[in-house]
Amino acid sequence: MGIFNRRHQVATVDPAPAVVSPRTPFPGESAGDAALDPALRALSGQWTIDRPHSRIGFSVRHAMVTTVRGAFADYDSTLYFDGAVPSRSRAELVIRVASVDTGVEQRDAHIVGRDFFDAARHPEMVFRSTSTVHEGGETFRMAGDLTIRGVTRPVDLQLDYLGSVLDPFGFERSGFDGTTTIDRTEWGLVYNKRLEAGGTMVSEKVRLQFDISAIRATPTS
User: Fold this and answer.
1) Which one, of 106, 97, 121, lies nearest residue 184 by Cα?
2) Pick from 52, 132, 59: nearest CA to 92
């Protein structure tokens, strides 16, 4: 397999059409890297994340001994995949931070408050890619700019391609797992409490996780 699978399978999914988020097309851009298998070009084009079958999440160590996990339910996505020249691939993700869900209402309210995201003044977290590199096999690395609380810093995502399918409703899908780890304090999320035995209540390191089912966008006339 490569970034866009040369085979198509029929997948069993929920018995309802997928719901996709709004999108804004990215133009393709020229690049100097070598082309991959020409058969992959058939899957180049505009895609968008299918929210009901995807997860934009995070995990962080709490009190040094356990892990808290959460996800964001409300976001828009724009994806351009290039199966011939991966460096032309682009992605943009705009996340409404108030949609965070960790399973505990009081904790969610704290996260969107001034100690962390300060959603009233900074309602969106944004990732915009700046480059994409094929590292071999099913693995790609996408560099980009991540903006949180008005602070923009570079990050690198590892992307693992999972395959492509044509589902029973006629949607063409491609799957990716993306991960990166950031230091939240670099974006101004510095709130913490010290523990009596040493260490902190909330780890500064946060693992971001992107479980993506992307659907090919229908061309507009």
Assistant:
1) 97
2) 132
Q: Report the C-alpha gap between 209 and 149 in whole angstroms.
A: 19
Question: What's the pLDDT tens digit per position in 61-107?
Answer: 987 889 999 999 999 998 998 877 888 999 999 999 999 999 999 99
Rounded Cα distance between 133 and 102, Å, is: 33
Two tokens at 197? 């035995």
What is the CA 192 to chain-centroid distance, rounded?
A: 26
Cα separation, 115 vs 75, in Å, equals 22
Task: Give the integer Cα–Cα distance in Å for 130 and 139.
Answer: 17
Q: What is the pTM of this model?
A: 0.80
In sequence order, the β-bridge partners of residue 100 are 72
Q: How far apart are CA 204 and CA 192, in angstroms?
A: 9
Q: 10 Å Cβ neighbour count for 36?
A: 17
Closest by CA to 96, choosing from 11, 151, 21, is 21
Assigned token pair, 101: 């869900």
Burial of 43 (0-12, 13-18, 19+ CB in 10 A): buried
Three-class secondary structure of residue 165 per DSSP: strand
Which residues face 200 on adjacent strands? 194
